[in-house]
Specification:
alpha/beta
């Protein structure tokens, strides 16, 4: 079990992390918190927003705050899988004999910024699958372990669809959260412009090392989850399946495909971190309900009726959460 000292250390480091990220990123409170929660919980994040709202800047800033090696991969249609994972090259030794030597790709880092990930072909996108789930890379039959902690923070533009390839369902499922990055308000825009007039570079300082981040994750994993809350979480996940035994009316009407078991795992892992950030030593129903949106919005597929009525994934998730909460008396 986590000791009181561990929890105090967790809280102090979280405050330091948020403070330092705030030096580089104006506003975007929910996005910043969601990204940090996912990183502590050990998950990957998909950031969706129009150009210029600070997606890339946030990821670069997090690399500084966690003092972790950071690499950016600019995804383009001509990017090949070997450009991501690395490949074997022929090296001639002093004796004149040639041997294969592995040349690591940019995936061999702690934080990977997959910029505009939907611009690469499905073949190249699939090169990330093994790394995102198993944290290993296999090239020509040899598997290599990636150094921990390891995160993929990907960005995509929801508006421009020319020359893009929708992410495969299997890859979408490997993102713990999908976070929508909104446009800044007028006041936030004034702060952004004023800040970038001084310097375009990130100024955040290190607030947590990789080892400390892994310790925070271990602390969060020890937070207890009541059986009723765990059951409620699994019911909420299953309720998104239109043909499931606990399917809600909203799921039957608007959802074509429900969330996978990874959604349930992500809800519990992230809720433990969320509880600690809020100063609680146990997971509450409210934590699950709040996290349902970033966890489920990319895992459910809406049917034609939902699209015809102009409903977004968040609209449908809200209906599902309200129905499950009411039925199972979650507050």
């Amino acid at each position: 079990m986590a000791t009181e000292k561990d929890i105090e250390q967790f809280s102090r480091q979280c405050n330091d992390i948020f403070t330092q990220v705030g030096r580089d990123v104006i506003g975007q409170k929910e996005v910043v918190e969601g990204t940090i929660v996912a990183m502590i919980a050990g998950g990957n994040v998909l950031l969706e927003g129009v150009p210029g709202v600070g997606k890339t800047r946030l990821v670069r800033s997090l690399g500084r705050v966690f003092d972790l090696p950071f690499k950016r991969i600019q995804f383009t249609p001509d990017l090949m899988p070997a450009d991501v994972t690395g490949t074997n090259i022929i090296v001639k030794g002093e004796d004149g004999n040639s041997t294969f030597q592995f040349q690591p790709g940019p995936i061999f880092s702690n934080i990977i910024l997959a910029d505009e990930i939907n611009r690469a072909t499905p073949k190249t996108q699939s090169a990330l699958l093994e790394a995102m789930q198993e944290h290993t890379v296999t090239v020509m039959g040899t598997s290599r372990k990636l150094e921990e902690p390891f995160f993929v923070l990907a960005t995509q533009n929801p508006i421009e669809q020319d020359g893009t390839y929708p992410l495969p369902e299997a890859q979408m499922d490997r993102f713990m959260f999908k976070l929508i990055v909104p446009d800044p308000s007028v006041d936030e825009l004034m702060e952004i412009v004023s800040m970038t007039q001084k310097t375009m570079a990130e100024v955040a300082d290190c607030a947590c090392t990789g080892e400390q981040l892994l310790q925070m994750r271990a602390t969060a994993n020890q937070i207890p989850v009541a059986e009723d809350v765990l059951r409620y979480t699994m019911i909420l996940t299953s309720a998104t399946h239109p043909t499931g035994e606990v399917a809600t009316a909203a799921a039957k009407q608007y959802i074509r495909v429900g969330a996978s078991p990874r959604a349930g795992q992500a809800l519990i892992s992230a809720a433990k971190v969320k509880a600690l950030i809020k100063g609680r030593f146990n997971v509450a129903y409210s934590d699950i309900n709040e996290l349902a949106y970033p966890v489920l919005r990319h895992r459910i597929k809406l049917n034609f009726e939902a699209i015809a009525e102009g409903l977004s994934a968040d609209d449908v998730i809200k209906l599902v959460v309200e129905e499950v909460s009411k039925k199972y008396k979650a507050k």
